[in-house]
# Entry
Amino acid sequence: MKKLQPVRGTKDILEEEYRQIYDIACHWHLATEGFGFKMIQTPIIEDSEVFKKTLGLTSDIIKKETYTFKDRSNNEITLRPEGTAPVVRFFINNKLHHALPQKLSYHGEMFRYDRPQKGRLREFYQLGAEIIGEKDISADLELIQLAMDFINGIGISDTKYKIHVNSLGDKESRKRYSIELKNFFQDHKKDLTSESLERLKKNPLRILDTKNKKEKKLLVKAPKLKNFLSSESSDIFEEFKENCKELIIPIVVDDNLVRGLDYYNNICYEFVSNDIGSQDSFLAGGRYDGLIKKMGGPDYPGCGFAAGVERIRLLGPKNVDLNSERESYFVLIAVGKKNRIKAMEKMEKFRSLTTWPIDFICRDNLSKGLRYASEKKAKYALILGDDEILNNEIAIKELKTRKQKKINISNLSDYLFDPKKIKF
# Structure
């Protein structure tokens, strides 16, 4: 029989990794709430037109990365490959234009058929934030501040990453630049990969996103988008850079920075790090004025960013539980099957007295119960055996020091409410 395995590019997530993903999500909730964002959720599956209309038919995602299929009613469905287009669809369908700007955040699974590698799976977790209905660059700046607060708040030092920025200009700016760029690459076709030759036919700006070393050297000589910006786009970018200086946002202007999706314009940015391999960007975003109108809604401006949770985990503190509450994780051990029901009755009451996690295990001897508690990385074991139940007591054992004390069970609530009171 064929051995059953996860589909290539997906993985089983074990307890420790899942807990870190959960803790990152908790920090994301706190960070976004602190900035006045509202958490929403969109379906994992969408009508394929949501992405075909927005990502651009020449984008790598639409050409070769989406999981698209027909359902039993012959509707074409796509597993969401990114979060912005579904959020905009959500905004339009739910008529959220009554109170602008709307500040929305999300997190969840995305799917792309791409070559699996470090920090990049075919099923991956992403979190993101969008501001819809605010044209002023204060919205772009607020998003970058939110991103920095969140990243630094989960223990990633600002020395571990840089914020690259660029202006993609408006539609006319890119049109003029695209013509000049195409002429340049036509003269260097022999130096281009087959993928870049394909991009040259349909959208030469995508060549700027190359990872090929030979092509990167060629880009040094290529025309720069900044020289083709309209006066309005140029003024916006200059104001943005000046505001970043005033807000002490450390940016690096990257003339070759482009975004892989067609809906972006003007301000764009990426948080990049040398510590996560060739896929060095772990958070990226920008402005997408015109996208809402393109998707059939009112002509409102918008901007946002998304971050990859797997790449954030690669940068985060190793072997550190991001949720400090788990430092007081308890395991209640019922010693002997005859004490199981009484211990479970007590446990229900214990859980109502605390926000700390309390696990439960019943074992025929104490050493087996303590082994379980150690494997679960609990800080304290609560022990209920024959003697404890007979004397209406409970034993508290600190697993690291092996110190233990017995207290009257009626006094346990004080310790569960504040574990710092536990003195041996």
User: Anything to note?
Assistant: The chain has two domains: 15-170+230-315, 324-421. The radius of gyration is 27 Å. Confidence is low (pLDDT under 50) at residues 319-326.
